[in-house]
Structures are given as structure tokens and as C-alpha cells.
Amino acid sequence: MPSTDETFMRLALSLALMGEGQTSPNPIVGAVLVKDHRIIGFGAHLQAGKPHAEVHALRMAGEEAQGSTLYVTLEPCAHYGKTPPCADAVIQSGVKRVVVAVEDPFSEVSGRGIARMRAAGLQVDVGCLAQEAEQQNASFLYYARTGLPFVTLKLAATLDGMIATDSGDSKYVTGNEARTWVHQLRDQVDAIVVGVKTVITDNPQLTVRLPEGGKNPVRVILDTHLSMPSDSNVLSPEATTMVFCGFEASELAEQNLVHRGAQVIRIQTVDGMVNIVAVMKHLATLGYLHVLVEGGASVAGSFLSQQLVNEVWMFHAPKLLGEGRSAILFPVVAKKMQDAILLKDVTHKEIGGDWLTIGKPFYPVELL
Hints:
Helices cover about 30% and strands about 25% of the residues. By secondary structure, the chain is an alpha/beta fold. The longest helix is centred in the N-terminal third of the chain and has 13 residues, at about 5-15. It is elongated, with a radius of gyration of 23 Å. The termini are far apart.
């Protein structure tokens, strides 16, 4: 049987999901206040700059918060940002005990909230359902610890490993249900990355198209020489578009793209291609926590080769082409089977008629 702490923390974790995709660059957080085995308040962080989960719970509880226990999925903040420190609000409310799932690694928190509450005489216990809380806030925690965005790589292929026909036709490898899952994923990320070849070949929109609407991520195009046509769908006004190119790219091409509303960022190149590590660092400075890489084979292979991918979504469609464009990844990321990038913590889901595999890359050799 789960402990009482686990029961209430699971409720806090479920509440946190209310803010999924809406709080960046902040984490999603849920909070539950309990007194005499009764829930007297609860809340979730719903939007950056708005009240945090703990504040919603305390406001609901009012004076009953005195002597209660607070369950919260992430350490209460201890600094002034767009809102006052939650640790101070918890102390002032008279809460007696705080159960925290995960310490916040953000430099302005990083244990300070826990220390402040303990110094004020509160009992603070850390680690209840920590693994679940880590997974729930994986993008924020990775960003806070490394200074880089969390990267999800999405791939799709037929059973015989083809991503397109010989003519380049790739619409669509997967069925409607799988594509809906991809749009739901887009709704949760901050930016979506493709290479210019994908823009030229598929002319995608890279927007969220769900019946209930959604939040369009920033579209990031890797276009070293600015060869993208100025009438590309990714230049539509529905979402912001950032184009990363080399310093040698045409100024006229840049002017044409800027005229269409794009932001053009010139950045250093490596082996004649835009430096994707530099791109990720730039996106991090803008507060983008979660980046989705969708295409194509060269971009996917480059991100894996640079060990920038944190999570892989691999769709397999029950189709056979026989001949086609079979390289899902280019350049080759491993020349020997023993050097292959393994996926760990793997899950499999049937999505309509397709299969989705989700896993975390395990890199056999770290980059120097």
C-alpha cells in the first residue's frame, strides 16, 4: 500500500500536469495542503509570471493552513522573480511540515528554499516520488543543470526503414492518430528544429493543428547558405520563425526572409554546416527549455552525433516500400554494433495502426 505521503504527492503530480506546455521557462508544479487527513487547499502553476502552485493552495486554505502539511512537486522558490518567494509565503502561513519531491537546481533556488523553511522551524522532507517528479519536469531540470535545452528527436519510418519514396514523397509515413500525437508534442515544446532540406522538400508549416487549438512553438530552420525559398510555409505569420545561417550567407537572401517576418541569426559553422551546439546555446539564452527536432536525416544524425538528444520518439508504420530513401540518420552515428547508441527506459505504444517507441539515448562514449 502506498504511504500517505505518496498518496498526496501523486495528487500534486497530477495537478502539475494542468500547466503542461504553458509555463516555460518555468517548471510545472503542483501543490496540495493537508490537515487532519483532509485536503484543505491545492493548486498548480499555470503560466510564467502568474502565482505559483503553493500560493494557490495557501489562498484556498486560508487560516486553516496553520499547522498543515504541504506537498509540493518542486522545492518552493526563495528569490524574487516575477512573483515573491514561495518559501516565505509558506513560512508566514504557519504550515508545520513540507514534503518536497525534488530540489530545484535553478541557481537562484538550489536548496535555499528548503534551508530557509528549516531555519524557520518547519519540518522539510525531500525525495517523495522523486523519480516521477524528475521525469515530469525533465526539460526544466536538464536546462537548469546544464544550461542547454532538453531535446526530443522525432523520427518516423516504414517497417523496412524507409523515410520517403525514391522520389522524396514522405506524406505521410504514419497515420492520422500518430500525427495527432506529434501535434500534441509540438504543443508542449518551445521550439521545433528542421533543416533547410526538409523545408525545400516537404514545405511544412511546423505549427500545431489540433481540434482544440494549441500553442505554436518557435520554428527554427538550419539554413547555412540561406537557400530557403521566401515563399516557404514556415514563413507564415502563425508562429515566429528563426533562421540560423553562416556568416557567409547572402545579405540579399537575409533581407528577403526578414521582409517575410523571419529572424535571421548568423552563427559560426563547422565543416560547412551551422554549428548546432551554438544554436542550442543561443536558444537556451532565450529561455527555451524543450526543443523538438523533426527533420531530416542529416539534422537527426548530427544531433545524435553531438550527443544533444535527450529523448527519442520513433514511429514505425506497418508499410513496406522496398526501395526508397532508407537513411533515417546521416551521417552514420556508429560504425560498429558495439558503438551503437542504445535507448534506455524504453516504452512502446500502439498509436492507431502505428507503433511508437520512446526512449532515452545512452551514449557509449562521452564527447571530449
